[in-house]
Task: structure prediction
Amino acid sequence: MKAAVFYAPGDVRVENIDIPKIGPGELLVQIKAATTCGTDVKAYRRGHRLFHPPTPLGHEWAGVVVQVGEGVTRFRVGDRVAGANSAPCGRCYYCKVGQPQLCDDLLIMFGSFAEYLQVPARIVEVNTFKLPDHLSFAAAAMIEPLACAVNGIMESGIRLGDTVAVNGAGPIGLYFVRLAALRGARVIVTDLSDMRLEVAASLGAAEVINVSRLPDAVRAVRDLTEDGRGVDVAIEAVGLPDTWEKTILMARKGGTVNLFGGPKEGTTFTTPTGLVHYNQLTLKGVFHLTPDTARMAFDLLANGQVSERPFISGVQPLSQVVEALEAHARQEVVKYAIVPD
Result:
């Protein structure tokens, strides 16, 4: 089969590799759509701590079951399926205390930029879903990133009527916009791309700010709040230490700051201790998804509360996946759906 394989930063090749042989409890899925995301772009450009090259690339997926492993009873050949790219063990300390995204044995799957995908038994069991006929493959492939954003929203404690700042209008930031608006929040979005800010407005953002045209993004956001006090919840969806620091400064006294974007390994950030202490800020790092949020994401997509149309900017063949990642990195699109040639 053809697959995109990561060899080193900047070196991804579409080449012929063996079709995986599945084991008990596993599925072999013929990929119909695999969407690009910021994690793919970062991995392509600088590698990933979980990668041991050569490594198949891609982790958002949807397709058709073509082979079923021994013991699988929930799925049959021909089923349209999609799901997350991970699954917790269910046995470690973190799973037992309700934090499965921090599982000591979190299984993570890559390889969806390919013609076929081997889905491990644990993911088949807890994080794979049979698709209704009306749900497109491109929409269903968004279960994983949407589930991450759902997890972030759940951890942010957004209430009806809150003012929420979302810094970054990439795919994850845009999911935050849609979900916060569904919760009845007034959403302020900052980004460098007019195109992405237009998408944010279409998803329910009340205010959009192109920070490339302003000397002070923090002041611009705070000026849009009553008495300039700051937002109830500030969400960082970029993954840059400088943006982390600015996001903290946007929150009101007693506010919550969700530091969701993942910066480069080894970086640090600085914030005034007095600000955090005397303003009684809650700073939260939020990571990945849980089986519960994966189910919520699937339901949101299946029920039409989140549509693929604002997020999927176009379709590219697997042979053009590198070009698609480059366009994604240049912020020319929100996401691409990658399909086998």
